[in-house]
Amino acid sequence: MKPLKRYQYERYAVLCKLAYPRVFRHTRYGFDPNGQRIIRDRNGKIMIRVLWSKKQDEVVVVFKGSHSVSDWILNLAVWMKNCRPLGLPYSIHAGLHYLLQQESQPSRNEDKLGVSVLVRLETTLLPLIQQGKRVALTGHSSGGALACVVADYLERRTPKSIKRVVTFGQPAVGSWGFYQNYTLAHKTYRICCDIDIVTFLPPFPFLYWHVGKLLWLYNGRIYENTPTFLRFGRSLLSWLIRPFSYHLMSKYIRNKDFFDER
């Protein structure tokens, strides 16, 4: 598995952050003026951005995380939903399943009604894949979980079309069957930051599973594939001792920039 480069990390992290505002000037980030397609949810809100440039062989698909009350309510749908009707041999979080299968409101005149988010996205990507472009998928929080499912779906229907999957602070996605049958573990980077509680959700050990290579950004270092129970233990310890850590002189020295030079 190739290491994730710093410029790749920064690129995907910035795009995930910019997925939340309604307005995103994609040309500032090297994409063509006509190199953006928007996938909307059932309420007409932007859910996914597809970005590309003629000069690059990579199409970037950016999934927005939970951003409304209804999204957060869907996060509570923690039962499993079978994905076999989608051609996937496993079950995933019911809320994620609903987000992919909900009707997508049209973004362009040629978009038809009655099409799911997943089908709208696939229809958008197929012409680009046929041009020889490969797809990188990224997302924050539940958007990262969606990126994993969609990437696996596309890879099964258009083999070797997926370049990589990079997620930030994502919850677990699906069942043990999902862990066993996910086809892109060697191309998936799951990035967790410090003691991000969302990365431990849903709180059902051995029922929900993560996939891909874990990159845990903790205490100024990158830890790879740290077991969940060990990461949780260290995170819990951090919560307990954090108030005392602010007493260290290193904290006072770090904050020297608050003072103007006199």
TrEMBL record:
Protein name: Lipase
GO biological process: lipid metabolic process
Organism the protein comes from: Vibrio mangrovi
UniProt cross-references to CDD domains, sorted A to Z: Lipase_3
Every Fungal lipase-type domain range: 60-204
